[in-house]
Amino acid sequence: MRWTDEAEAAIKKVPFFVRKKVRARVEKAVDDAGRKTVTLAELKAVKARYLTNMSSEVKGYQLDTCFGPSGCPNRSVVSDTLNKKIEALLKAEDLLSFLKSTVNGELKFHHEFRIAMADCPNACSQVQIKDVGIIGAAMPMITDESCTLCNACVDQCREAAVLIDEEKEGVEIDYERCLACGKCIDVCPTGTISLNKKGFRVQLGGKLGRHPQLAKELPGIYSEDEVVDLVRRCIKFYKDNSRHGKRFAEIFKMSDILK
User: Fold this and answer.
1) What is the DSSP letter of 213?
2) What pTM does this model have?
3) How far apart are CA 114 and CA 130, in angstroms?
4) Distance (Å, whole) CA 100 – CA 6
5) What is the number of other CB atoms lying within 10 angstroms of the CB of residue 4?
6) Count of domains observed in the chain
7) In what order do the strands lie in the sheet with 216-217?
8) Is 225 in the same domain as 149?
9) For position 215, what pLDDT does the model report?
10) Residue 181 is part of a domain; what is its CATH number?
């Protein structure tokens, strides 16, 4: 559907965490009216109705994903199955009923428990500012296969985490810099760099608002089942301790989840 320049500029001013929903709602309203172009007037009308009835749109949680399922070439892992498991868990936990029982006044989108998933470290779904952020990871390792010193891995690594040691005629990985994107594994022609472990990095406690903070990363790489268990523990802690709409980031400590 076509958007006029004025309408496109206006939708970009809508807060990003509801922008996708507002855009979809506007396009549906315009389509239902039998039109093919979104104008500024239509955007304003639908936006006003949407925000007025915000509480009816709140479902208790937000689960955002990146563009991986559409075929993004940067995917470190395929998270489609994990996404379904987490969606099922969130529905079963009935966070909407919990929020209704603990929040004074009308529910708004910022009250929802937020999870974001990204299939690579580019993190298009903004995992660093969500209650729980999940990032696909493919951790490389050095094998016994001889290195031809082709530099393909060095050229591919955006973190400068892969180094060629000319004296030893081999390659080294700086794991302090490595983000486990797996790109060096993909381009190595000899198998000198191979896959060590594939799974997910997990970050907790990110948020925006008046006092923004980036999420903190748990050590290690986790399997699908381990990630689901971590999410379950986070939700339990949130339900046990959050009152009056306090965000997960405001109440948790890393030790609370790891113990």
Assistant:
1) B
2) 0.81
3) 5
4) 38
5) 15
6) 3
7) 61-65, 113-118, 132-142, 193-204, 216-217
8) no
9) 96
10) 3.30.70.20
B/e letters for 7-43, b = 16+ CB within 10 Å, e = fewer, are beebbeebeebbeeebbebbbebbeeeeeeebbbebb
Q: Are residues 95 and 155 in the same domain?
A: no
Token representation of residue 237? 């802690």
Looking at the fold, whether 129 and 145 belong to one and the same domain comes out as no
What pLDDT shows up at residue 20?
Answer: 77
CB 101 within 8 A of CB 83: no
Mind listing the pLDDT tens digit for each residue in 186-212?
999 999 999 999 999 999 999 988 899
Which residue stretches of the chain have pLDDT < 70?
Answer: 17-18, 49-56, 67-71
**Domain around 16:** 1-52
15 and 130 within one domain: no
Q: Cα–Cα distances in Å, from 141 out to 39, 103, 158, 201?
A: 53, 48, 17, 17
